[in-house]
């Protein structure tokens, strides 16, 4: 049984734009909270008495449930109705934000941050699916995905700015309190304006065992990655947890091949654009995260910027991402196809990170950082709408929530992997340089240089995957290119499911 979506009438343009605004408001809150706490961590530590090792869990307690539940929540959206799942996630996220702001102890803050991650995953998992099912005309869909991609990609850098301003102007509590009125309004507007849809779950099992396996595997994988920076990638702890996560994932895959109603139908991977886009997305985010994290550290620890100055330092990237995602990418994608646009965008991102690989210890913002923000902002603003469109291009109505959850899961895994690998490389190289007698600023800079260059290599890897696996979808009114019989059979079965 496919998901029932009421037909969109010609006069529904205003209501669909309002619905898009509601969806993006919810998504923006979720994305902002992934980074807004970063600049407030010193204040949180001083206020609540966190130990240095415990402070990292203010971030990890959000990341682990967020990364682990996206896939499951996306499938629940397909089965039980995406509006119901979206609103439920918003309620959980908003209440958890209030509890975070009221926290008076490390334990209360960490428990509330975990709940925030749960609500964020549930909300975020179905947002892209609701966008693509709401906008079916190719040009309109490209524009809507551009808006979604702007929120998705610029939200992280905007979080750094907002976090710095709120922390310095009021207190760290307000980086959480600000979500409460926005979340309450978003819940009210979503209930009134988003269309309810009938899920495909009636009469079907929910594959409870598969749900437990994949959630445990993803949470354990994210935990292993984020903790690897402290314990080392070759440590017994990291290898043991990593193997356990892979074992759980392998059991889940076997389960999906045998289950009558699998949580993750194997047909999802029969589409090369879906699989290729997910792989490209993971590698691109892994590399790009070196800017969102390490460029901030460079500005603060080497250039001496405070939290607000650092936030303004990343504004050019956000502005360019917005310009590209909202106005340029939809037109280019409609004219040249998403794959073509994506290839050029990945070249720009790799070039921007390579420029950051040349920063100097006695540098300045406008000579060392700003020149890289231009290709990074343009490239990321073009890449995200292209990737989102490609990742959703093979999804049927009954699987779009799952595809949306998969896309966001890979983004979270890529961010966690990039943070762990690149921060570990930077810290290790810095320690070696300090031991060799290099001054602190020079040692830090050398570590950041190495991480930026490796990040650029990640993006070049994404370019290779995109160039060899992805294909431009056929344009409306044109016949698709001939495909192997096995693939045609698989897609026919999917369309009739």
Features of the shown structure:
mainly alpha, 497 residues, disordered N terminus, 19 helices
Give a written overview of the molecule:
By secondary structure, the chain is an all-alpha fold. 79% of the residues lie in helices and 0% in strands. It is built from 19 helices and no strands. It has helices spanning 13-35, 41-48, 52-55, 57-80, 82-102, 106-134, 138-169, 174-177, 179-193, 208-231, 236-258, 272-302, 307-313, 315-336, 338-356, 365-392, 400-435, 440-469, 485-496. Helix 10 packs parallel to helix 17 and helix 12 packs parallel to helix 15. The protein is globular. The chain starts with 12 loop residues before the first helix and ends with a helix.
In sequence order, what are the helices and strands, one letter per element?
HHHHHHHHHHHHHHHHHHH
The percent range for strand residues is under 5%
Structural class comes to: mainly alpha
Q: What integer is the average pLDDT?
A: 82
User: Whole-Å distance between the termini?
Assistant: 7 Å
Number of strands: 0
Largest sheet: none
Which regions are unreliable across 5 or more consecutive residues at pLDDT < 50?
1-11, 479-497
The helix content, as a percent range, equals over 70%
């Amino acid at each position: 049984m496919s998901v029932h979506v009421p037909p969109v009438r010609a006069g529904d343009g205003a209501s669909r734009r309002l619905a898009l605004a509601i969806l993006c408001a919810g998504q923006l809150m979720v994305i902002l909270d992934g980074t807004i706490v970063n600049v407030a961590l010193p204040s949180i530590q001083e206020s609540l008495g966190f130990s240095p090792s415990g402070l990292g869990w203010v971030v990890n307690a959000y990341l682990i449930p967020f990364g682990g539940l996206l896939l499951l929540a996306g499938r629940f959206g397909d089965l039980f109705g995406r509006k119901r799942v979206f609103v439920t996630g918003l309620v959980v996220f908003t209440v958890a934000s209030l509890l975070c702001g009221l926290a008076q102890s490390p334990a209360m803050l960490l428990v509330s941050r975990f709940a925030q991650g749960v609500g964020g995953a549930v909300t975020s998992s179905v947002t892209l699916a609701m966008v693509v099912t709401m906008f079916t005309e190719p040009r309109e869909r490209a524009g809507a995905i551009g808006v979604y991609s702007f929120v998705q990609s610029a939200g992280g850098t905007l979080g750094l700015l907002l976090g710095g301003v709120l922390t310095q102007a009021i207190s760290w509590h307000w980086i959480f309190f600000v979500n409460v009125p926005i979340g309450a309004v978003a819940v009210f507007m979503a209930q009134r304006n988003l269309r309810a849809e009938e899920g495909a779950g009636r009469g079907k099992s929910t594959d409870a065992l598969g749900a437990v396996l994949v959630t445990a595997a993803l949470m354990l994988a994210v935990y292993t990655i984020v903790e690897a920076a402290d314990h080392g990638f070759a440590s017994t702890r990291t290898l043991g947890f990593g193997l356990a996560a892979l074992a759980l994932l392998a059991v889940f895959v076997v389960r999906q091949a045998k289950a009558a109603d699998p949580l993750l139908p194997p047909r999802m991977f029969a589409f090369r654009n879906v699989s290729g886009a997910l792989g490209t997305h993971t590698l691109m985010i892994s590399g790009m995260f070196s800017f969102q994290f390490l460029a901030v550290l460079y500005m603060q620890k080497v250039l001496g910027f405070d939290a607000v100055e650092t936030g303004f330092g990343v504004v050019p990237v956000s502005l360019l991402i917005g310009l590209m995602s909202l106005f340029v990418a939809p037109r280019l994608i409609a004219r040249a196809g998403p794959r073509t646009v994506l290839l050029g965008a990945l070249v720009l991102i790799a070039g921007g990170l390579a420029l950051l690989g040349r920063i100097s210890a006695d540098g300045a913002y406008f000579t060392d950082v700003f020149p890289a923000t231009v290709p990074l902002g343009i490239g990321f603003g073009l890449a995200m709408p292209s990737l989102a469109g490609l990742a959703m291009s093979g999804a049927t109505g009954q699987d779009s929530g799952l595809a949306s959850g998969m896309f966001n899961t890979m983004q979270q895994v890529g961010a966690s992997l990039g943070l762990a690998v690149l921060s570990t490389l930077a810290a290790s190289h810095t320690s070696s340089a300090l031991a060799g007698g290099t001054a602190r600023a020079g040692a830090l800079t050398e570590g950041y240089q190495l991480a930026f260059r490796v990040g650029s290599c990640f993006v070049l890897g994404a370019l290779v995957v995109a160039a060899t696996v992805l294909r431009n979808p056929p344009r409306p009114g044109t016949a698709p290119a001939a495909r192997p019989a096995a693939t045609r059979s698989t897609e026919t079965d999917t369309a009739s499911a």
